Amino acid sequence: MKPDFFDRSILTRQLWLFRREFFWVGIFSLIANVLMLTPTIYMLQVYGRVMKSGSELTLLMVTFYLVFFYALMAFAEWLRSRILVRAGVRLDEALNSLVFTASFEAYLNRTRHNVAEAFSDLTNIRQFLTANGIIAFFDIPWTPIYIVVIFLLSPFLGWLSILFAFIQLAVTWQSNKMIIREIESAAEAGSNSYRYVQSKLRNIEPIHAMGMLGNLRERWFKLHDDSLAIAEESLERQHRHQAFTKFVRYSMQSLTLGAGALMVLEGKMYAGSMIAANVLMSRALQPLDLVVATWKPFVQARTAFIRLEKLLEAFPEREPGAKHQDPLGEVRLEALSALADGRDTPILNDLTVMFPVGKVVVVLGASGSGKSTLARCIVGVWPNRKGKVLIDGEPVESWDRMELGPHIGYLPQDIELFDGSIAENIARFGEIDSQKVIEAAKRTGIHEMILRFPRGYDTQIGEAGGMLSGGQRQRIGLARAMYGNPAILVLDEPNANLDDVGERSLVEAVKEAKAAGKTVILITHRPSILSVADLVVLMQKGKIVRSGPRDEVIAEFRPQGGMPREKNA
Fold this sequence. Notes:
This protein is an alpha/beta fold and 569 residues long. It has three domains: 8-131; 142-293, ABC transporter transmembrane region fold (Up-down Bundle); 331-560, 3-Layer(aba) Sandwich (Rossmann fold). The protein is built from 20 helices and ten strands. The protein has helices at 10-16, 19-35, 38-53, 56-108, 118-129, 132-139, 143-153, 155-201, 204-209, 213-265, 271-293, 295-314, 371-379, 401-404, 422-426, 434-443, 447-451, 470-482, 500-515, 550-557, and strands at 331-338, 348-355, 360-365, 385-391, 394-395, 408-411, 488-492, 519-523, 535-540, 543-549. The strands form two sheets. The chain has a six-stranded mixed β-sheet with strand order 6-7-8-3-9-10, sandwiched between helices. The longest helix is centred in the N-terminal third of the chain and has 53 residues, at 56-108. The chain is elongated, with a radius of gyration of 35 Å.
């Protein structure tokens, strides 16, 4: 029956699946450690039998068995290492999809989890499982057995070995107590410095243009100096403890040899037994030495395990949503409120409205009124919300995202394209249907523009579409939203970077979508797009202050000086 311990998290359950591999690693460790007695037995035979008998044949046979058992020991050690390497790879394969999905969800939900470290955490765990550190834990249980054998050679040396083993354990425990927090603090400080640089690289152009580099560099120097100071102190302490540990280890080995020599001088044991006891003592303490040497990777792997465990626990693999018919496109909000951490008042406050199928809805409002947040709620990417967002009467979270995604076209206010070809970006990095890609491009008026590129639709756009202008990125993003004729189009400031030609193409595309019975929700501040609107929703301070047919809303506000205008949603 599976222990309750392994039910506490996804990560521990995955590790429990490798219990058979760990069992065989234990078996091969048993074989390897038993065969580690070979040099001791060989030494006793040489000093005890061969030297007395003077038989070369006996020496030859004993040496033959020595080489054979050494080869068997090496084979057992190779097998256990191979098993651990394969287990590490399989663990990575079992978890990488979960970590990938959980990382994206954590970032989407704006949590405090360090998403950038998730993949390196998985790598740290895999590497620790395949390194010498984990092998040391399989070898440690054999330390008492070696000490028992030393007892058989000499009870005095046996008790001395126990004393030395406790000294080694005390040194290891003290090192753990004093170093572990410093290692974690140094890693966290280095990570903070790295994250600071990464966040600034994403906005390098305004930093360079406005001469902000020097000011930001001074702030980074402070973070970096702090991380260096912590790392320096941590490393100094680690090296100090390693030096002390080495002193203790060498002293104990030499003292064991000296104690054995004393026993030989007193006639209480043979010289071969003395040397054999010294070899056994060295072997008994070797796993403890290896634990000390690999303590830093162990601490890093343990920290990575805890972080990854919390991430996967907070964002477990979702069960597939219920199967639905292809959506018609009706969107209804019921008492919808959107909240944000660190903000007392909600961004959206108790919104109830319906967007009928086949209608074009234009959402207007001043900056900060919540229009972009409304768009995110409709497409189901705003994490902290109350109330309901219903698509064809079903809550948006009840839909499987892979099922619903192709039926939604979303153009965010901040256009994000990805490293790849134009065709891949328009096709949402799925299987490219050339006809649908060209159709979406033509609907947004960029087909001819794309053909003018050296490689047409196969043109690589670079990271984040860096080789494109703002207007080109927006029109490709619009084509991506319209790819496959989705039932619901949510377009946040789709004409913000468009010229007159691009805006005319946008108007025509919206008319075509409307004629095809699609639901179009437009967030804009340009009055030109109002010509295609069926309904207008006016927002103010997170609330809907007016909604209804376009002409009625326009007529109501025209005597007050016209529709409110804005620069950004």
